[in-house]
UniProtKB/TrEMBL annotation:
Residue numbers binding Zn(2+): 641, 643, 665, 726
Role, per record: Catalyzes the transfer of a methyl group from 5-methyltetrahydrofolate to homocysteine resulting in methionine formation.
Organism ancestry: Bacteria, Bacillati, Bacillota, Bacilli, Lactobacillales
Residues binding Zn(2+) 1: 641, 643, 665, 726
EC numbers for this chain: 2.1.1.14
Keywords, alphabetical: Amino-acid biosynthesis, Metal-binding, Methionine biosynthesis, Methyltransferase, Repeat, Transferase, Zinc
Organism: Enterococcus quebecensis
Name listed for the protein in its UniProt record: 5-methyltetrahydropteroyltriglutamate--homocysteine methyltransferase
Short name of any one Pfam family annotated for the protein: Meth_synt_1
Cofactor binding description: Binds 2 Zn(2+) ions per subunit. Binds 1 zinc ion per subunit.
MF GO annotations: 5-methyltetrahydropteroyltriglutamate-homocysteine S-methyltransferase activity; zinc ion binding
CDD domains: CIMS_C_terminal_like, CIMS_N_terminal_like
Catalytic activity: 5-methyltetrahydropteroyltri-L-glutamate + L-homocysteine = tetrahydropteroyltri-L-glutamate + L-methionine
Cofactor: Zn(2+)
C-alpha cells in the first residue's frame, strides 16, 4: 500500500516564508532573495517527505501567498488594472494579493474569502467579459522540474477548473460556463506539457464537489471533465476532494476516466456509504483520506485500520490525509515547554507523515511492525484528558430551562429601558480601544517578568481611566474599559480556563503572511478564576454611565481553538458556555449592568451543506450562547457582536440567540442586511456599524448622519443603536478619537431632528 499527501504547510517550520515575504514587502530583500528562500523551502519539504517514506509527493502546493491566486495567475485571470501597472510578474502577483499604491498606480487588492470550512482565506479570482483564460504561467512546470533535478519525482497539484470558476466573481455578463471551453484548452495544454516533462500523475483539486450542487452544476461538471479528460493521453489524473463528501457527484466522478479518486473519510460523513451504495470501478485507485489534515491529535490506528478494512474491500487504496496539511502546524519538535505526556498525543504535519508511514507498515503486516500498533493502542488506552467529573455532570444535568432566559425579550426591553434610562439611538463602541505600542509593551514586559503585577495593573488602570474620561468627554452613552489587558480575544480567556493548553511555535497560515496559533482544548473546561471582573469593576467606579462588561462567547472560543476529538463539539461548547456563564454572573454580581458576549466567529464552523446547518451545528451552537446568559436578571442587558453581516441566511437563528442587543459590521456591505432584518421582523435591538474601522479614514458627521437615516428607513428607532462596526484595537489614537466624536455628534443631530 502506498502513501500520499494532498499538500504541505509552505510557510516553513519556523515561518521562514512569512518573514522573508514580509522583508520583501518592506524592500529589505530583493525578489531574487525571496525566490531563493522559496526554492530552499520547497526542496527542504520535498526531502522531508521522501525521508518520511511518502510515496506520492506533491509539487505546486507551495505559494508565496495563496494557491488559488497562483492558479488564477497561471491561467491569465488578472484584471486589466493590475496588468496596466506593468510591474514584474512577482509584483503584479503581490498587487493582486495586497493592493498596490506607488509610482505605477493605485489599485486595491482582490477580495479575500474564507476557504470552505477552514480558517484559511483565499484570494477571490476576478473575471470580467474581457478575461482571456489561457495558460500563461509556468510555476507548475518549474516546481516539477526543480524537484526532478533534486532526484524527486513529484505529482503536480492544481486547483481544478470547476472549483476555480465556481469560486471566482464575475463582473461582466459572462458566467462560469462561458469560460469552460477556454479552461479545457488551458488545462489540456498543461496536461500535455507535464506529460512531456515526464510527469506520471497530476492531482486536480476539486473541493467544490463537497458543496451542495444543483443538478445543473452536476451536469456542467460532468461535461467539463468529459471534454478535459479526452485530452489526457498517458498522464494519470487524480480527482482530489476534501472537507466533506461528494454525495452529489459520486456517480459522475467514478464514471469519468480518472485514474485516481481522492475522498475524505474524516469529514466526509457519507464517503463510506457512497462506496457501499455505488461501488468503485476496478480500474480506479482510491486515495483514502484517513489521517485528519485539520486537527492536531494523533491518529487512532485501531479505528483507522478498521475503517481501511472496509474501504479496501472496494478496491485498491492509497493512504492519504483528509485534506492538505496546510491547516496544521509544522512540527512538534519545537514545542519544548509542553510535557512529553501531553505532546505524545499530538501529531502536527511532520508527525502525520510518520503516521501514514506507520499505517503502511502495519498493513504491510511484518511482525516487527506490529509494535507500532501496540504502542498506539496503549496511548489511546491511557487516561488522556484532564477529566473534571463535576463539569461533565453539570453538562449532563442541563435541562431545557437552562437555555431559556425569562421574562421574554420584549418584557426585558421595557424593564431595561426604565432602569438604564438611555437616550434614543444610544451610542457605544464594540470594546477595544487602540492597542498602542506602550499597551503592547506593558503586556510583554509583564510576561517576561520585567515588571511585577502591581506595576502591570497600574498601567492598565491608568489607560482605562484615560479611556473612560475620553468617552465621557465626547458623550458616549454606554462605555467600555478598552481591553488593554488582552492579547487575543480567545487566548485571553483560554489562559484563565482549566483544560486549555498553549503552544510555542504551532502556527497555522490564515492567509498570505498571516498565521494564527490556536490554543488546544486538552481537557474538561472550567473557569479557574474570575477573568474580567476586576478591570470591569474598576472601570465602573470611574463613571456614572453604564460600563459594558466584555466577554468572548463559547462558540467563538471553540471555533478558534483546536477542539478535542474524544467528546463532541457540542459537549465542549457547553462546557465553555458554563465557564463563561460563571463569569457573566460574577460581573452582574459586581454591579455590571450591561454585558457583551462576542461571537465574532459564530459562522466559522457552519457546515458546508445547508442540509447539515441545523442538525450538525446551529441546534447546539445557538443554545450554547443562550446558556451563557439565561440566568441573568431581567435588568441586566446582554449584548453580542459579530464581525460580519453575512448572516441573512441564518438570521432567525441569530434572533434566537435571544441577546437584548446585537452589533455587527454593516458599513461595507451597504446595509443590505437591514432588509433581511425587516423581513423577519427581527426582535433583538441592533447596532449596525455606522463606519468601517478597517480603514484609517475618519468619517464625517454628515456621512454618519446619512447612514443613521438609512438605518432608520428600515428599522424602528427604538430598536437602533449607534456604534462603529468592530473593535478599535487595530486603529491609531488620533483617527479613533476623531471618528468617535463624529459618531456621537451625528447621533445627537439625528436625535435632535426627530
Ligand atoms: N470586543 C472585541 C473588540 O472590540 C470584539 C473583537 C471582534 O469583534 N473581533 O476588540
Ligand atoms: Zn468585530
Amino acid at each position: 500500500m502506498k502513501t500520499s499527501i494532498i499538500g504541505f504547510p509552505r510557510v516553513g517550520e519556523l515561518r521562514e516564508l512569512k518573514f522573508a515575504t514580509e522583508k520583501y514587502f518592506r524592500k529589505e530583500i530583493t525578489a531574487e532573495e525571496l525566490e531563493a528562500v522559496g526554492k530552499e523551502l520547497r526542496n527542504k519539504h520535498w526531502q522531508l517527505l521522501v525521508n518520511q517514506g511518502i510515496d506520492f509527493i506533491p509539487s505546486g502546493d507551495f505559494s508565496f501567498f495563496d494557491t488559488t491566486l497562483d492558479t488564477a495567475v497561471l491561467l491569465n485571470i488578472v484584471p486589466k488594472k493590475y496588468q496596466e501597472l506593468q510591474l514584474s510578474p512577482l509584483d503584479t502577483y503581490f498587487a493582486l494579493a495586497r493592493g498596490y499604491q506607488g509610482e505605477a498606480g493605485d489599485v486595491t487588492a482582490l477580495a479575500m474569502k474564507k476557504w470552505f470550512n477552514t480558517n484559511y482565506h483565499y484570494m477571490v479570482p476576478e473575471i470580467d467579459d474581457e478575461t482571456e483564460l489561457k495558460l500563461v504561467g509556468d510555476s507548475i512546470f518549474t516546481a516539477f522540474n526543480e524537484a526532478k533535478e533534486a532526484g524527486i519525482k513529484t505529482r503536480p497539484t492544481i486547483l481544478g477548473p470547476f472549483t476555480l470558476l465556481k469560486l471566482a466573481t464575475y463582473h461582466g455578463q459572462k458566467k462560469a460556463e462561458d469560460f469552460y471551453e477556454a479552461a479545457i484548452t488551458a488545462y489540456g495544454q498543461l496536461i500535455q506539457q507535464l506529460t512531456q516533462l515526464g510527469c506520471e500523475w497530476l492531482q486536480i483539486d476539486e473541493p467544490a464537489l463537497v458543496l451542495d450542487l444543483t443538478p445543473d452544476e452536476v451536469q456542467q461538471f460532468k461535461k467539463l471533465y468529459q471534454k478535459l479528460l479526452a485530452k489526457k493521453g498517458t498522464l494519470k489524473i487524480l480527482a482530489q476532494t476534501y472537507y466533506g463528501d461528494v454525495r452529489d457527484t459520486y456517480q459522475e466522478l467514478v464514471e469519468l476516466p480518472f485514474e485516481g479518486i481522492g475522498l475524505d473519510f474524516v469529514e466526509g460523513r457519507k464517503s463510506l456509504d457512497l462506496l457501499e451504495n455505488y461501488g468503485l470501478p476496478e480500474d480506479k485507485l482510491l486515495f483514502a483520506g484517513i489521517v485528519n489534515g485539520k486537527n492536531i491529535w494523533k491518529n487512532n490506528y485501531q479505528e483507522t485500520l478498521a475503517l481501511l478494512e472496509k474501504i479496501q474491500s472496494f478496491g485498491e487504496v492509497v493512504l492519504n490525509t483528509s485534506c492538505s496539511l496546510l491547516h496544521v502546524p509544522f512540527t512538534l519538535v519545537n514545542e519544548l515547554v509542553l510535557k512529553k505526556e501531553v505532546t505524545n498525543h499530538f501529531a502536527f504535519a511532520v508527525e502525520k507523515l510518520a503516521e501514514l508511514n506507520d499505517l503502511k507498515k502495519i498493513i504491510g503486516n511484518k511482525v516487527e511492525n506490529q509494535s507500532l500498533l501496540t504502542a498506539n493502542i496503549s496511548l489511546f488506552n491511557q487516561e488522556r484528558f484532564s477529566k473534571n467529573g463535576q463539569v461533565a455532570q453539570q453538562v449532563d444535568a442541563l435541562t431545557e430551562k437552562d437555555f431559556i432566559r425569562l421574562p421574554v425579550l420584549a418584557e426585558r426591553a421595557s424593564i431595561q429601558k426604565n432602569k438604564l434610562r438611555l437616550p434614543v439611538l444610544p451610542t457605544t463602541t464594540i470594546g477595544s480601544f487602540p492597542q498602542t505600542i506602550e499597551v503592547k509593551q506593558n503586556r510583554a514586559k509583564f510576561k517576561k517578568g520585567e515588571i511585577d503585577e502591581d506595576e502591570y495593573t497600574a498601567f492598565n488602570q491608568a489607560k482605562i481611566a484615560e479611556c473612560v474620561a475620553f468617552q465621557e468627554e465626547i458623550g458616549l452613552d454606554v462605555l467600555v474599559h478598552g481591553e488593554f489587558e488582552r492579547n487575543d480575544m480567545v487566548e485571553y480567556f483560554g489562559e484563565s480556563l482549566d483544560g486549555y493548553l498553549f503552544t510555542e511555535k504551532a502556527w497555522v497560515q490564515s492567509y498570505g503572511t498571516r498565521c494564527v496559533k490556536p490554543p488546544i482544548i486538552w481537557g474538561d473546561i472550567s473557569r479557574s478564576r474570575p477573568i474580567t471582573v476586576a478591570y470591569s469593576q474598576y472601570a465602573q467606579t470611574l463613571t456614572n454611565k453604564p460600563m459594558k462588561g466584555m466577554l468572548t462567547g463559547p462558540v467563538t472560543i471553540l471555533n478558534w481553538s483546536f477542539p478535542r476529538e474524544d467528546i463532541s463539539l457540542r459537549e465542549s461548547t457547553l462546557q465553555l458556555a458554563l465557564a463563561i456563564q460563571e463569569e457573566v454572573l460574577d460581573l452582574e454580581a459586581n454591579g455590571i449592568e450591561i454585558i457583551q458576549i462576542d461571537e465574532a466567529a459564530l459562522r466559522e464552523k457552519l457546515p458546508l451543506r445547508q442540509t447539515d446547518w441545523h442538525s450538525e451545528y446551529l441546534d447546539w451552537a445557538i443554545p450554547a450562547f443562550r446558556l451563557v446568559h439565561s440566568k441573568v436578571q431581567p435588568t441586566t442587558q446582554i449584548h453580542t457582536h459579530m464581525c460580519y453581516s453575512e448572516f441573512a441566511d441564518i438570521i432567525q437563528d441569530i434572533d434566537n440567540m435571544d441577546a437584548d442587543v446585537i452589533s455587527f459590521e454593516a458599513s461595507r456591505s451597504s446595509l443590505d442586511i437591514l432588509d433581511a432584518l425587516k423581513a423577519i421582523d427581527f426582535q433583538t435591538q441592533v447596532g449596525p456599524g455606522v463606519y468601517d474601522i478597517h480603514s484609517p479614514r475618519v468619517p464625517s458627521v454628515e456621512e454618519i448622519e446619512m447612514t443613521i437615516h438609512n438605518i432608520l428607513n428600515k428599522l424602528p428607532i427604538e430598536k437602533v443603536w449607534v456604534n462603529p462596526d468592530c473593535g478599535l484595537k487595530t486603529r491609531g489614537v488620533a483617527e479613533t478619537e476623531a471618528s468617535l466624536k463624529n459618531l456621537v455628534l451625528a447621533a445627537k443631530k439625528v436625535r435632535g431632528g426627530i
